[in-house]
Design a protein that fits this description.
450 residues, Rossmann fold, 5-stranded mixed beta sheet, 5-stranded parallel beta sheet, 17 helices, 13 strands, 15% strand, globular, binds NADPH dihydro-nicotinamide-adenine-dinucleotide phosphate
Length: 450
């Protein structure tokens, strides 16, 4: 049955949706033992229904730049599945955005959201707009134009978007401002809002901090190990990477790398987070080359100067690796180098950053591997906390949000590890995550009827 579903998808989605098929195949490959044991999944056509989005919305975004030139971009919102709650998932602004890419991200999101145990369904959206090199006013004009269309489809109880690549606090602020102007509604229609108007404390930090909380729990339970005093490597220099580095440094780990789409920084004395923020935080996208010119002993390795098929970040020996940049960034070759250098754990901060053959290698070699849909779920969890605070007009303290985030990451780890064990796949957290998420989602779909 699983083979037939993937064949049908390949036929109907053509080659443009390669990354979507990759995400579906990974999940489906985990589900065989679950499907075999319960006829209801076939009776209710759960697999066919789960791989098909509820709706895919595409719209035109027309906006004017600082020189009065008119531009047109594609905008999307994919409402994938709301069996567990309102559609929930980020918006990505990046020139590589296509319908296929957003389908992959939305599909991953329904499983991630299911794993949190919270009442949230899954969706994703975005645009092929490139924020790089744009002024604040151009970003604002684009966000306003984007919301002029998007507001037709979202709502605090319908679909609640958040940030992703290229969409942070600033963009969510502009989007929310426009939503409010158009609808006159001051409600929790977006999460990741600035704290001054309805945002939750710790939302910007949540994904990165959650990644580290997951890693701590996994290492403690599986290996009786801690991250303190250990060398860690992180890729990326955006929201997820910055806060992963920050939390790792808080707990005494030594982070020696970061990267962006142009290259990697290796700083053996430990990444200088203050400088990194000056270069990259709040939507600034200055080259990492500036880091190496300002920090003695650090090295900038340009992507173009590194052998094809691998990334300099993963060539640096480490105890634990945290891919936090983008999908498919960690190749089989990178995985082999990490294994050869004695890396014991890989914890994904980005969505699907590890290629399938690299995952196989980690599992084969006994490297603890935490898939993003489990380890990076802290962001969406705190987004749901933001929705709760907005609905009840409350403001939770930093300590309360942090404690709840920690608790939820530990629960996700336990759910994933126990499910893997239950199905005879001990320490296979990919299967554990896929099966646990699927069972909760499928149950809701069966109970709500067709
Ligand atoms: P940001 O836009 O803040 O940062 C993305 C970072 O990745 C930038 O440093 C960017 O560099 C780098 N990057 C982008 N493309 C590439 C590439 N092809 N090769 C190397 N580096 C690249 O995004 P986020 O930090 O928010 O998101 C990072 C990942 O985490 C994504 O996979 C996202 O889906 C996932 N995620 C994010 C969540 C959130 O709360 N923000 C929640 C859960 C998952 P450059 O500036 O040069 O483009």
């Amino acid at each position: 049955m699983i083979k037939k579903i993937i064949e049908n998808l390949e036929k109907s989605n053509c080659s443009v949706d390669g990354i979507f098929i990759q995400a579906v195949s990974e999940v489906m490959n985990s589900l065989q033992p679950v499907i075999e044991n319960d006829d209801r999944y076939e009776t209710y056509a759960i697999l066919e229904r789960i791989v098909t989005a509820d709706r895919i919305i595409q719209f035109k975004v027309q906006w004017v730049d600082d020189h009065n030139h008119v531009h047109v971009n594609n905008g999307y919102r994919i409402q994938y599945n709301n069996a567990l709650g309102p559609y929930k998932g980020g918006l990505r602004f990046h020139p590589s955005v296509t319908e296929g890419m957003l389908k992959f991200l939305a599909f991953e999101q329904i499983f991630k959201n299911s794993l949190t145990g919270l009442p949230i369904g899954g969706g994703k959206g975005g645009s092929d707009f490139d924020p790089k090199g744009k002024s604040d006013f151009e970003i604002m004009n684009f966000c306003r134009a984007f919301m002029r269309e998007l507001h037709l489809y979202i709502g605090a109880r319908i679909d609640v978007p958040a940030g992703d690549i290229g969409v942070g606090n600033r963009e969510i602020g502009f989007l929310f401002g426009e939503y409010k102007r158009i609808t006159r509604n001051y409600d929790g229609v977006l999460s990741g809002k600035p704290f001054t108007f309805g945002g939750s404390l710790l939302r910007p930090e949540a994904t990165g901090y959650g990644v580290v909380y997951f890693a701590q729990e996994m290492l403690k339970e599986e290996l009786e190990e801690v991250l303190e005093n250990q060398i860690c490597t992180v890729s990326g220099a955006g929201n997820v990477a910055l806060h992963t580095i920050e939390k790792l440094q808080h707990i005494g780990a030594k982070v020696v790398t970061c990267s962006d789409s142009e290259g990697t920084i290796y700083d053996p004395s430990g990444i200088n987070l203050t400088l990194l923020r000056i270069l990259k935080d709040d939507g600034r996208r200055l080259s990492l080359e500036n880091y190496a010119t300002q920090v003695q002993g650090s090295q900038y390795i340009k992507k173009a100067d590194y052998p094809i098929g691998g990334h300099a970040t993963w060539n640096i020996p480490c105890f634990a690796a945290f891919p936090c940049a983008t999908q498919n960034e960690l190749t089989e070759m990178d995985a082999q180098i990490l294994v050869n250098n004695g890396c014991v754990a890989v914890i994904e901060g980005a969505n699907m950053p590890t290629q399938p053959k690299a995952i196989e290698l980690f599992l084969r070699e006994g490297v603890l591997f935490a898939p993003g849909k489990a380890s990076n779920a802290g962001g969406v969890a705190v987004s749901e906390f933001e929705m709760s605070q907005n609905a009840s007009m409350e403001k939770w303290s930093y300590e309360k949000v942090d404690a709840k985030l920690k608790e939820i990451m530990c629960q996700i780890y336990k759910r994933v590890a126990l499910t893997a064990k239950e199905y005879g796949k001990e320490r296979n957290f990919v299967d554990g995550a896929n099966i646990a998420a699927f069972k909760r989602l499928a149950e809701a779909m069966i109970l709500e009827g067709v």
